[in-house]
Amino acid sequence: MKAEDAHALIxxxxxxxxxxxxxxxxxxxxxxxxxxxxxxxxYALHHTPPGARLPWHRVINAQGKISFPPGSEAYETxxxxxxxxxxxxxxxxxxxxxxxxxxxxEAPVLD
DNA sequence: TGCTTGACCGACG
DNA sequence: ACGTCGGCCAAGC
Length: 111
Prior knowledge:
This protein is mostly helical.
């Protein structure tokens, strides 16, 4: 498996995150078939050129936080995009129990 | 070639 | 709620 293929699988999985929901780096890696390699998700996104039709902003870390330095341009952009979709931030964090993307087979989300 | 760096994670203190 | 540590491994130098 080439690195490019892995990145493609990661990006394909990111595309599946519905509007208004979020997923963690580790979650995306697992869904794409790379358990224990959350960094692969970060790497694939890092290499995604701006302008790509990809909901990269819906990917946050396992603590519910944005993985950019608070106050940075990237941080503010990601936060704004999420808020535009109705994802609320409380004390700089997203409530994963509420907004994390889950498959239909898993436990339903409380609204 | 070999070493360092990360848009990370989970466990543990 | 922090900080540290080991695991992970593609890229970059």
